[in-house]
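User: What would this chain look like folded?
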Amino acid sequence: MMMPANYSVIAENEMTYVNGGASFIDAIGAVTAPIWTLDNVKTFNTNIVTLVGNTFLSKVVNQTIGVLFSGNTTWKAVGAIPKTLFTTNVANGTIEKNNIGDYVMNALGVAAAVYNLGVAPTKNKVKEDVLTFKTV
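Assistant: Here's the prediction, encoded as structure tokens.
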């Protein structure tokens, strides 16, 4: 069989040497592909959302339910809930100039906290603690 002068028969596993080798991403994929399955990726993503949501949970609860049940609730405070919940500077309720990235990440954190509240049961103090009664 006649082949062109620039053609040579090379095994497939030797092609990386001819093409310049694998990139960093290819190397990571080759190492992790046998280990990570679709279930691992799903678990990883769920855990990331949970970690971010846990970080923002107290902020969401304090600035929503905390405002409504504080005993000092005014219509002005209720109207300010969205403004204080989605801002990066809670003290004055503003988004710092040219800081849209923080605003977006803050909104994602709030969304992750709300997601956690929707998918995981919260601790029930009455159910999980032993109640004791004191006689007066």
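The longest helix spans residues 38-63. If you want, I can go into more detail on any region.
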